Fold each of these.
Amino acid sequence: MTADHPPSPPERRAGEAMTPDEFRRWGHEAVEWVARYLEVVEDLPVLSTVEPGEVRAGLPPSPPRWPEPFGDILADLDTAILPGITHWQSPNFFGYFQANSSGPSVIGELVAAGLGTQGMLWSTSPAATELETLMCDWLVELLDLPERFLSTGPGGGVIQDGASGATLCALLAARERVRGREGLDRLVAYTSPEAHSSVLKGARVIGLRDEQLQLVATDARHALDPAALAEAVRADVAAGRRPFFVAATVGTTSSHAIDPVAAMAEVAREADAWIHVDGAHAGAAAVCSELRFVNDGLELVDSYAFDPHKWLFTNMECDVMFVADRAPLLAALSVSPEYLRNQASDSGAVIDYRDWHLPLGRRFRALKLWFVLRSYGAEGLAAAVRSHVAWAQALAGWVADDARFELAAPAPLNLVCFRHRGGDDVNRELLARVNGTGRAFLTHTVLDGRFTLRMSVGQTTTRRHHVEATWRLIAELAPR
Amino acid sequence: MTADHPPSPPERRAGEAMTPDEFRRWGHEAVEWVARYLEVVEDLPVLSTVEPGEVRAGLPPSPPRWPEPFGDILADLDTAILPGITHWQSPNFFGYFQANSSGPSVIGELVAAGLGTQGMLWSTSPAATELETLMCDWLVELLDLPERFLSTGPGGGVIQDGASGATLCALLAARERVRGREGLDRLVAYTSPEAHSSVLKGARVIGLRDEQLQLVATDARHALDPAALAEAVRADVAAGRRPFFVAATVGTTSSHAIDPVAAMAEVAREADAWIHVDGAHAGAAAVCSELRFVNDGLELVDSYAFDPHKWLFTNMECDVMFVADRAPLLAALSVSPEYLRNQASDSGAVIDYRDWHLPLGRRFRALKLWFVLRSYGAEGLAAAVRSHVAWAQALAGWVADDARFELAAPAPLNLVCFRHRGGDDVNRELLARVNGTGRAFLTHTVLDGRFTLRMSVGQTTTRRHHVEATWRLIAELAPR
């Protein structure tokens, strides 16, 4: 694919690989490519079957010396890239938690990339900042979240890259609140063994040793036991340690367990510790009024995050983090060099989101969220999420009705955890066989020490018949 | 814009705001919108002139209940959003460091969003991982970087969200290397007062107190003085502290000063400290063989990062970070819960990039970089960067030839720092007047205690005549 000579016409101008007209031409081709992909993705094997090194082996080892025609590049998408894609946008994708998307979101990415803004400061694109603030406030209304998360008070929302980033920022704000008064070595954080790996990763990042993150016992439903939390806090205080952070999860990754947020918040309040709630996946359920139990206790917490890029039809990255009080967050994350000073920031009348997270530079992520929320409308979002939950509940029923299988955990929303009664090896083999067909993709976890299949029903184009067909496939491949 | 009733035909299906055909239609409209934007952006006022709150005031306070027609949304881009955009893609944008882009990169974002992969693990989209590894290796060749950064040895590259993230990861890897043997309180990091604010931010994040980041004296050219570094290290060791991290900058944000990397690496090596080089903006210059002085000393360092999203025609986010040894980085950032286990990872035969940075989820960022490197080719990239440098050098000449002005720092590449001899107030007023015309946008810094104008010549569509016109504007508005 690499030519040894400069291309003949059209002659390239230095600095511009495409004129606006060339962009128009190839942009249209790319839209067609994506539309065709969305049309055929259902029929592709969900999990890529390439071997390690296979994709790379199909590509030139060195960069080309001269420009290549854009048509060649698009053609290579089909031959070199597609075989190596695991199709997260397939309606038969039931693995992990989905990263669902939608046409309006993809178009939002296109427009945001075309504008090419860098919204680190209000002044560097006021619309990027103000639309982000408005979208966060819209979500407070849409999900019926506590008013303390509105930007009009001392709190507010910000778009983070993901729930891991939000957890890390919450840890930093929590540390900031006790710092100066306390040495880092005395701090203790608390979460459940079922919490996302990002809590441990974040704790390490901010300088805690692993033993400074206490994993509190869970109950039979894999939810944190608040009495055990209270006891752990008491013991740590008695031993001269300083509880400073509690992480609750609404919808754990393994089993969708829902920690008792209100009771945990009470313990945190008494200990003067920050409480953060990670609702990365399940939080989106609150678009349905009947599913707002996922919000229980949020009126008592310091920070909360969920990912529109998981279950709200918005491309990665798009996590929304809310804080009840933005002061500790900004105190932890503000560094103001001269070269970023400007009149608007100095006036204090604007938000500079660079002080709300780790990176300095910022893409215009709010744009795609605006496109999505308007294209669906509140009713459209609720209908879509409600369907996912209904189909998952139907699946849970089919599992319960098959004597070979058992549910491995309650299924409060759209994740169903189940296992064949034949033991770990049978389940491991069953998962491999199902995924090996290419007709569906699910993943596993370990619950109560046993290998467990997980099926998350939340892809944008998934319909009831996809869930049914996948269950039939599982039932067919499972030992009698 | 919010309707009180459900829309009449086309009826919406739950879960899908757009069919592939509707995506096709609106995707084409969006491509037209972006193409027209690129055609007219040159004539728009570069710095947005909206007042705080103005953008938000033009938008509905609440999310819509029912779906809105996509045509309405695109129309609102012109009326509600564009006035609030500061046009980073204007050829008259000379502020900060540019965040340049290109048609192939924008199309790459579109395709990556359409594929909607989540490449946290090799298995969750092998092509995303393998293309990323290949692009990092291509860049080693393209920039003539040390071979130790190739993925085929113990080192390798990874795409980070930005240089701030890369610096933070380098700090974490450095801390990991000494941890266990040393308490956090004894660690000392070193950089120059001219280093990017992310070094201080990163040091705070990993748990250091501000006094644990030593700001080492600079010379008359604003580059770190390696003798002062050696002296500071000696004094700290003598006082029982543990030097563990040195951050050098190639092309500081204020003035493009280039720290003496080789001499600093020597000091770091003797102290057994990690040395990271932040070449966020200037690193891209190495696409030109005659500008490879920006690579001096890199063969001696532990990690290096630069941003294709600044000066290599690739949309945000796209920073490339290289390490000579990936083991400490992975040791610092690996957390492996059961629900992410898979055969490929267990085999050790693949890279799982989630262990190379802070987030878990990953967009397919390598795709746009592949599109860019192929669309330009090595010669095209070199020609574009070479032109920027030539025009900046011409600008430096015009400044030097005008008796009212003086250069405030050497201009080794495409950033020119200068000031009117009339003092801070004159320069502050001059900057406001130039930016107030809307015909160009530049920013400022403070060098040697004096207010200084900065002009970074690196936007994709900037041509010599834009630089000339901006200099004429400055000269015209400046006091005689």
Amino acid sequence: MSELRWDPLKNNWTIITKGRGRRPPDFLQRRTQVKMSACPFCSGNEEKTPPEIYAFRPNDSQANQPGWQVRVIPNKFPALRIEGELNNRAEGLYDRMNGIGAHEVIIEHPEHDRSMADLTIEELAEVLKAYRTRMLDLRRDSRFRYIFVFKNFGIEASANVPHSHSQLIAVPLIPPMIATELSTCREHFQRKERCLFCDRHSQERQSKERVVRDDVNFIVYAPYASSFPFELMVAPLEHSHDYTLQTDQQLLLLADTLRDTLRRLRSILRDPPYSFILHSAPPTHLRWGRPDYWASLPSDYHWHIEIAPKLTNVAGFEWGSGFQMNPTPPEEAAEFLRNADLSVT
Amino acid sequence: MSELRWDPLKNNWTIITKGRGRRPPDFLQRRTQVKMSACPFCSGNEEKTPPEIYAFRPNDSQANQPGWQVRVIPNKFPALRIEGELNNRAEGLYDRMNGIGAHEVIIEHPEHDRSMADLTIEELAEVLKAYRTRMLDLRRDSRFRYIFVFKNFGIEASANVPHSHSQLIAVPLIPPMIATELSTCREHFQRKERCLFCDRHSQERQSKERVVRDDVNFIVYAPYASSFPFELMVAPLEHSHDYTLQTDQQLLLLADTLRDTLRRLRSILRDPPYSFILHSAPPTHLRWGRPDYWASLPSDYHWHIEIAPKLTNVAGFEWGSGFQMNPTPPEEAAEFLRNADLSVT
């Protein structure tokens, strides 16, 4: 029998259908190899990209020259642009504003054929530090209400350049997904004086059936009402609302956890396409002294990374209802991932 | 410059990126032909499906035998099942209920190779009447809070059987998308004593730039904050909350409008994959005399069909933020569709 499950964080129901194809072999896909002549993200091709915004250059090499290990550049085809005024205005019943924001690309490694799961823990930690550096910098621009990192791996037409990279985007509005999480967390906190994430983590650690990895510092689990097969949540066990407050040492531990998680997915789903996103509390805009609805929120939020392998198609049902339909119960997904053979590359 | 646009109905922002590929030739896809030996939906293969629930049989032929023109059967692999109790229960922080509901397939034509756009207006009207009949029947089951029709055309892994069909699903909860529409419509009505849809239609008819077709009975337009390229709204101009109240004559007019719209999409996007959904007011559950939040809603809602060609991929950005990103401004989409060459098949 299929089941409807409600997630107090997303405030949404998922239909866990069970029964239709739901195990890893049902999802194996042939990966399309995107061939590129002269990848602009490769070391040596720096002149093919806009000038870098930030780079980790262990050898003290020159900007926009080889020698970097992580490199951040503006997106050449940005969804949002940094120049201009918001010009928020009405048009009859509707509203519009200019597409002001920032859209950056984090190139994770100078070599073309290394995926995030292939990096050393130290290399991955530098990528995570680059996220932190760029978030802190963009926060200073008061036009941006939210800044988040996302990554599309192996998704045709989404990851146009196969060279491993993530993206960072700053938007002039709190995105709806974040607004929901902030308000469910706040309601929970107001009622119980406890963090909703911390409460979830206690329940998950107790039941264990959806936990993939728990290394005392971070927990990795398949959410109870997972919208997608093998969806995962990665979060610090110690309460923390703001990713940018993580120390270098904590990011090294996160790199270990994240790499292990990506390798588990790679093992059981044969290098599946996936997306991940990093959600942290929104920057507060206190410096102008204006009332800010979100200003007091951070303490009741909890930063985290969500990972979703792209295994199923979203079509009329999901689009027309807002319900997600997921054939794989998260308890089964977690079991496959716990038992993954990590020698598979 | 890209633009953020807010839709008062969906209460959501879309980023219209402009500039990246956005015209019809940028979206042309090679259609994968799904070969099937002995299609279960073809006339003559009735024994390969579960027994029919409803059929339009102009020749008074026998149930589950050839002679039908439209045939409705239970989905062989239903997402939700009609038998059982809801058993709504908590599990710590979470909630779950059994997957109770109905999941039916409307086979639109006995022949295998006729798409919805190929039907005669009279044939399509019979499909629309079958939707009405089934909605009215399922409404009598008080476990179902909402009933809606959707169709996936040409979408790999979603439309498993290429023979033209739609699906109808009854769910034990108001879906989140409908809940949003019902509440935005209600708020608008409470403030202004006017229907939000009717107000939109006035504004669209005045500006004309997003209107594809206006035949006095129905309006077809590209919504101001379209989430997807070439997304369309089809709605009656006369206020009506409930699809099932449409007369045979009105459904014949709708068939004409809908077929014309599908042919325009086929012409400019070369038979694109698409989904459509039919949203109508939820059945009220007054007979038990229990207080029902939705009971007084219908008058401030307006039934409609939304059509979304499946041209772009949803990935990390959309999933992680809840914003949609759409490269094609609806004004451009409407212009292409208004000027479509309807002789193309």
Amino acid sequence: MLSLALALAAAPAPAKPPRTPPEIVAAAPASAWRAIPADDLLVIDYEGGGRTIVQLAPGFAPVHVANIRRLANSGYWTGSAIYRVQDNYVAQWGTNDAKKTLPPGIVAKPPAEYVRSPRGLVIRPLGFADAYAARVGFAGGWPVARYKDGSVSLTHCYGMVGVGRDLSPDTGMGGELYAVIGQAPRQLDRNIALVGRVIEGIEQMSALPRGTEALGFYKEGSVAKKIAQVRLASALPGSERPAFEYLTETSPAFAAYLDRRANRDDDFYRVKAGGVDLCNAPIPVRRVPAR
Amino acid sequence: MLSLALALAAAPAPAKPPRTPPEIVAAAPASAWRAIPADDLLVIDYEGGGRTIVQLAPGFAPVHVANIRRLANSGYWTGSAIYRVQDNYVAQWGTNDAKKTLPPGIVAKPPAEYVRSPRGLVIRPLGFADAYAARVGFAGGWPVARYKDGSVSLTHCYGMVGVGRDLSPDTGMGGELYAVIGQAPRQLDRNIALVGRVIEGIEQMSALPRGTEALGFYKEGSVAKKIAQVRLASALPGSERPAFEYLTETSPAFAAYLDRRANRDDDFYRVKAGGVDLCNAPIPVRRVPAR
């Protein structure tokens, strides 16, 4: 009996199956992850330190993204600032100085890349109702909505990045960008060009003092966060190049993650929600060693 | 002809009908507004200045709210702090110091006031789909969800305030509170006691540096925002007493407001959303002169 007891004691404890969304994500196999190209990573460095990294979405707003890459490569944003922070809405940065020389190749008046054709997109449905669109889900690592007319848009979830613009038909050339820092302002979907999302360092924007003027603009001359430089990750030396992967929506791990977001039943929870909002199931992204 | 032209020129310009949600709210008649009782206003003053005001919801969590009023009246939170700020989730404050003497009348283990009976509640439906509940809408000035079993809960929208707790069956006695500062974490609905919402000064919480420890807790000894005192507005001298009103969900002005939130068509917009999420239609609240 004693030997049996010892044998039992020595046996490894049965592995606890992953239960929370972060546990599911941590247990996802390498095959469930896809690398984000270095040309799709916009690295924003602030004066005095701190960094925000934006993943660009060339599949949804190709002309705007091409502009943004050109602006980054030309050093366009050096010395610009975050000049607007509106609580529960957006932080906005960059510049649209008419006197500033634009790098060659910039499309000054891009088309309205607010929606795209569904052609070539496979949408993994969220599976729960949405107040704004006939169907919502995920495609190519992005949250998307599909409308009755068949068009597809990215959606204004927390951290998504769009292009500031004046009144229509202006669509913004990309010099001024904003990130969502509150409840998803989905009324902006199909009305503005979304070009990416913050994947690291959102707190450099979301934790800033709110601007006291209308729409969260800072008072003239008051301190806005200054931007030292904005570069594509592909322009950084290899050893300093940040690298990220996202969990593909076609993987079983993503399905399990989504199910846990909709049906939390770990020890804290008493009642499963039985559903989840598109913007409350952010696509998991992880940092990986430089390649 | 000249005199006609002059007459026309002298006629007042036709009044522009209100078009944006803020314009609708600004034009709402006095009859559409209802006063918030001074006993339902929790006034949080910070060391070094700044104030946050929370409207309490005694109709949804009466035992917890009674506790909170007693704690406020006893000065329980003086010298406490905001000790947790997790990006896109919550800011949490207060204290649960077992050595601290509780004022008389505190219910140490309140019931799970996570849902309530629909009896006596008239829910004005939102009219758009929701990922979490069979029906959502507004009742008594609050965003609510009604579930298949007939129960009703408040919903974790931006700014809503809940009671921190340990694992079930603990429900928290009210000494530790949190406010939502990101995308609505609706999975918490029916799992925690919501007791109110921030109606002024949310930026005192949402713009704080994010805690660097797990779940957004601050590193021990690092600076959390210190709370000087927390009082009910009813405990303040009349001349200093803040006063607020909310737009009643039964008013035509509220219906017009909701319609504009769902169908923005002012000059910036190209496409109407045709819907709005419950948490993207915050109930309008306004400050009024002290009574």
